[in-house]
Amino acid sequence: MLRAHEREILDGGTLVLLGDVYDQYIEYRHLVPKSGPRLVGLLAEWADAGAEVVYVVGNRDPWHETFFADDIGVTLVRGAWESRRDGRALYIAHGDGHGRPASLADRLSHRLRPLLRAPFITRFYRMGLPGDTGFGLARQFARRFGTDGEPDPAAHRALAEAACERLEGTDADLVAFGHSHREALQTTPHGTYLNPGYWFGARTFARIDADGPALYRWRSGAAEPLPAARPLAATSSL
């Protein structure tokens, strides 16, 4: 799919990875996970060609160090990425930590998020648990307390509410979240809420250009447009 959009990205576009690119990611000083070598190679190739590649980390892959930024040339974002494109103010984040925690996994993640992302905790973890052991333990924890990839309706509603609040209370014209594994393209009087969905399961992704945001599903080697934006009604009906 990325190769199909290579020319527009290299001709001044931006690729934004919206977190949870890895099922689990822990980077050590001299070790990185071996998952996704072809993706990493492609990102490095594009970065070397001058393309802008932004990686907003998610709740499953927050423990990055310097590899992606220094060796691959990717802009690593640990919170929200804010930019202005085609006259629109964009606010783009993975979504964990936004909205009211809805499920048990979300509540646990919300409570542990500040602790697990504290620099001293990550240093202690890496020092105390070597690569295979530390990575394996983190992966088991994520599988035990995380989701199985299925869309989470409660998280979807919570993120839509958070997007509405941000659109109404800030100058953002478009808010994009991931995290819920459910695609969305909805409008409010104050702007647009976008969620590209779950690439690994549903093969959905989003594009934002001068005409606005749009959702697609990759099917049979081509991008299939999904329904256009609809008004964001009361969140209880989402």
Broad structural category: alpha/beta
Number of helices: 8
Radius of gyration: 18 Å
- Largest sheet properties: 6 strands, mixed
* CATH fold call: Purple Acid Phosphatase, chain A, domain 2
User: What share of residues is helical?
Assistant: 25-40%
How does this model look, in words?
The radius of gyration is 18 Å and the shape is globular. Residues 234-238 have low confidence and may be disordered. 34% of the residues lie in helices and 24% in strands. The longest helix has 17 residues, at 153-169. It has helices spanning 6-10, 37-48, 67-72, 104-116, 119-128, 131-145, 153-169, 199-202, and strands spanning 14-17, 52-56, 75-77, 80-85, 88-93, 174-176, 184-188, 191-195, 204-209, 212-219, 222-225, 230-231. With 238 residues, it is of the alpha/beta class.
List keywords for this structure.
globular, alpha/beta, 34% helix, 238 residues, Purple Acid Phosphatase, chain A, domain 2, disordered C terminus, three-stranded parallel β-sheet, six-stranded mixed β-sheet
What's the short version?
This protein is of the alpha/beta class.
Ordered list of secondary-structure elements with their pairings:
Blueprint: H1 6-10, E1 14-17, H2 37-48, E2 52-56, H3 67-72, E3 75-77, E4 80-85, E5 88-93, H4 104-116, H5 119-128, H6 131-145, H7 153-169, E6 174-176, E7 184-188, E8 191-195, H8 199-202, E9 204-209, E10 212-219, E11 222-225, E12 230-231
Parallel strand pairs: 1-2, 2-3, 5-6, 6-8, 7-12
Antiparallel strand pairs: 4-5, 7-8, 9-10, 10-11
